[in-house]
Amino acid sequence: MNIVIVGGGAGGLELATRLGRKLGRPERATITLVDKSATHIWKPLLHEVATGVLDAGIDAVSYRAHARRHHFRYQQGALSDINREAREITLAAIVDDRNREVVGERKIAYDYLVIALGSSTNDFGTPGVSEHCIFLDAPQQAERFHQRMLNGFIRIDSERQRDTALRIAIVGAGATGVELSAELHNAAQWLSVYGLPNISRDRLKVTLVEAGPGILPALPEKISAKAHRELANLGVEVLVDTRVAAAEEEGLRTAEGNLIRADLMVWAAGIKAPDFLANIAELETNRINQLVVRSTLQTTRDHRIFALGDCAAREMPNGRNVPPRAQSAHQMADLVYSNLLAIVKSKPLKDFTYRDHGSLVSLSRFSTVGSLMGNLTKGSMMIEGRLARVMYISLYRMHQIAIHGWLRTILISISEKIGRAVRPKLKLH
Fold first, then answer.
1. How far is the CA of 91 from the CAs of 40, 75, 81, 166, in angstroms?
2. What are the distances in angstroms from CA 428 to CA 18, 144, 182, 238?
3. Within 134-220, where are the H helices?
4. Which run of H or of E encompasses 61?
5. What's the pLDDT tens digit per position in 279-298?
6. What DSSP letter does each residue of 129-158 carry, written as one string?
7. Considering Cα of 283, then 289, then 290, then 294, what sign does the dihedral take?
8. Other Cβ atoms within 10 Å of 21 Cβ, number
């Protein structure tokens, strides 16, 4: 049996790893993971890559090395087409920075296909956003932000006027926007230690813009209010009920015509599945290009194609779709794993039930807030401070355990502690 997984994000990589261990090692099936990148970074940590707290060059997982260790195959490339009749996918050619072809267009046969392509930022067609704003969808974009941030701070440090500041505007007050806002203040403090003595939190002006009535709309109101107060204490200007009508060279233009001046702009408002998924192979999609799936996470028009994570649309009993979170991708990957094994054993497939275990938001080293348990209890339990920070870190450790196992995750944790002792607290290049 040929099982092909397209997308090496949290859900896709966990699924490929587990299938490789279960079916690839005894050669009961050929597992192939496809991703256009060569490495994997857990997407909720991209804001740390953007500020330099996390070095993607050190912490990223190499797909090729990981595939060899866990008995699956890896193909680098971008999905361009699906032929359902022939049961094969087409990968676009790979070209280098001089537009020379490295690998030509390829076709990969499948018996069962899993689409786990994640999501990209949705700019809702807002004029100027694609030209002037940075999206934090991939490590390359986070690195781009990091370089511009460093250049901005170096420029500010060299200016004699003490009233000048690096102005950063972030659109979207979900988890990414809120966590990035706090992490920027942490980065500013560390830069003053590493050769930029004129830099401090006072010379950083962060504006967080939200179209809705409050930040962190997916969390309970008292948690979002707590996070709002913490950001205000850091000096972040939070603008709610403010819709951005356009992005310009000088900053963001609001619907009322006001200009929010900014040297660096980040758009983190809303998500959508990749545009090319819209009606690909005549599969059913919704308005944000997500593949509509049945209760078994098979696509509605082809039982041989599964979809999971942010690119899958599965309606819950309350009428809403499963939220685009890392825990959703993890739970979906777990079910697709079980159902693929059930197919191998000719057993009935299981239905997907989303369980909300709560949400946590890290405000860098300043604070962590969130709720635990979700619908496992009659209500949410609010946590903050050290306990919340420990729980937040444990989410990433759980992902590492899923792809590396307990022993290797322990060794990685020890290695990270040693690295923090010998490396700068911030990536400076």
1. 19, 9, 7, 42
2. 36, 13, 19, 28
3. 139-158, 175-193
4. strand 61-62
5. 899 999 999 999 999 999 99
6. HHHH-B--SSHHHHHHHHHHHHHHHHHHHH
7. negative
8. 16
